[in-house]
Amino acid sequence: MLKTYLIDRFAIILFSLLGIGTSMLIAYLSIIESGATPSAENMIYIWILPGAFLAAGLAADYIRQFSFLTYVKKLAEQASAANDIGQSLKARKPRTREQALWTKMVNALGQQYEGRLSQYINQQKQHYTFTNQWVHHMKTPVSVISLMIQEGKNGTASSFPTFLEELEDENERFRHGLDMMLQTARLEEFAFDVKPQTLDLAELVRSLINQEKRQFIKRRLFPKLHAPPNAVQIASDQKWLSFVVEQLLFNALKYSKQGVGEHITIRIETEGHETRLSVADEGIGIPPQDLPRIFDAFFTGDNGRSMTEATGMGLYLAKQVCSRLGHQLYAESKEGAGTVMTIVFSSDTLVNVTAL
């Protein structure tokens, strides 16, 4: 420990000795110039006394640093968690500003480490929980398809077109579940999977409505798109935004009253520097006590518990994607009257996306 301390302060010791030597030389030349004879004892005193003060100062500083450095070495050898080291050093009450600075820095690093570790653990728990839920939900279409195959082998199945339609329904559930799982995995590497671009919002919505046209027809629901006559340009990422809008359409289809000819209204409005895209259904609505929590992970609420395919991840992922793209997503609902989901695009969205 002493050897390390002296090596670290080698430059201070060297220049101090050079300063003493220079002082001796100046004193010697001054005495010679005055015509006197320099005394050997005085020359030795000029050398010894500053050297003694230097040694005393180094000794005092070493004693002040020794306990701290020894404790740091001990903690390093034990390889404790960074935050534990910071708290332990803080408990020792640093005796110098340098020690206090190091303690503060180690504490900051420890807190940063704990934060990232906690975030990572939460992500892993969330991924694990969603995977378990997804596997559980996918058992239903697997069981239905197996039953349909068995009925076909036994000759008890319904007509072939009906058989294909039922099989397509189960395949659609598979597709949606797989897409949800894929987006959950991709969200962890969002910054590496985003491509800022300018999009025609109305054209994007039309393509997604057309993609889901079979679901609209099957459920006897009718989409109504209200958009300005001119193209509405917004800055976003096409792939991620398509996922969000598709999720909002899927929820509107799922929670609308089935087979009664109701409408799902998609409206695009521009006001000042903001553009709003809203998806409104005339369905069962959201209970007031559930509305503040619909964007929480795994929250299904009263409505979700009645839907076997509800995972509580769709709106959570949509909210996360919108937040990272610089958009706002909020919901308005009245139980029994329907729900309106709205995405707000601002003029500085492209800047936010590029900065990811």
UniProtKB/TrEMBL annotation:
Its EC number is 2.7.13.3. The chain crosses the membrane at residues 12-32, 44-63. Gene3D superfamilies: Histidine kinase-like ATPase, C-terminal domain. It catalyses: ATP + protein L-histidine = ADP + protein N-phospho-L-histidine. GO terms for cellular component: plasma membrane. Keywords: ATP-binding, Cell membrane, Kinase, Membrane, Nucleotide-binding, Phosphoprotein, Transferase, Transmembrane, Transmembrane helix, Two-component regulatory system. InterPro entries: BphY/WalK/GraS-like, HATPase_C_sf, HATPase_dom, His_kinase_dom, HisK_dim/P_dom, Sig_transdc_His_kin-like_C. GO terms for biological process: cellular response to phosphate starvation. It is an enzyme of class 2 (transferase). The keyword Kinase applies. It is a multi-pass membrane protein. It is found in: Cell membrane. Residues 133-349 form the Histidine kinase domain. The keyword Zinc-finger does not apply. One of its GO terms (molecular function) is phosphoprotein phosphatase activity. This is histidine kinase. It comes from Bacillus tequilensis.
